[in-house]
Amino acid sequence: MKVELSARPKLAKRAKLRPDRKTGGHALLYPEKGLLLNETSAAIARLCTGEHRVSEMIAELAREFGEQDRARLEREVLDFLQALADRGLLTESS
């Protein structure tokens, strides 16, 4: 899957976003593995419901985090989502 601004990403059924009691952050769990997420990554993962286009997710994150450098934010969101897609942790909602 190639992640683009018009995509509506959704976490794969095998991926679960859960609070991490040890760190107070979040973890993205999938069979026999997991990723500890920082606050920004967790916010991106929470928006992966299949309801939002990537461009809408970026706009929401810019509001939430007060991001001034929109191009940098867009690049970071696309890179993170592509990394999840490359691991098979994202699907695209139609």
Overview of the molecule:
With 94 residues, this protein is of the alpha+beta class. The protein has one domain: Orthogonal Bundle (Arc Repressor Mutant, subunit A). The protein contains 3 helices and 5 strands; from the N terminus they run ββββαααβ. The protein has helices at residues 39-46, 54-65, 70-86, and strands spanning 9-11, 16-19, 26-30, 33-37, 90-92. It has a 3-stranded antiparallel sheet with strand order 2-3-4. Strands 1-5 form a two-stranded antiparallel ribbon. A hairpin with a 6-residue loop joins strand 2 (16-19) and strand 3. Helix 2 (54-65) crosses helix 3. The longest helix is centred in the C-terminal third of the chain and has 17 residues, at 70-86.
How would you sum up this structure in a few lines?
This protein is 39% helix and 21% strand.
Count of helical regions = 3
Overall number of structural domains: 1
Percent in helix: 25-40%
- Can you tell me the CATH architecture? Orthogonal Bundle
The radius of gyration is 13 Å
Which short descriptors sum up this protein?
single chain; 94 residues; alpha+beta; Arc Repressor Mutant, subunit A; three-stranded antiparallel sheet; two-stranded antiparallel ribbon; 3 helices; globular
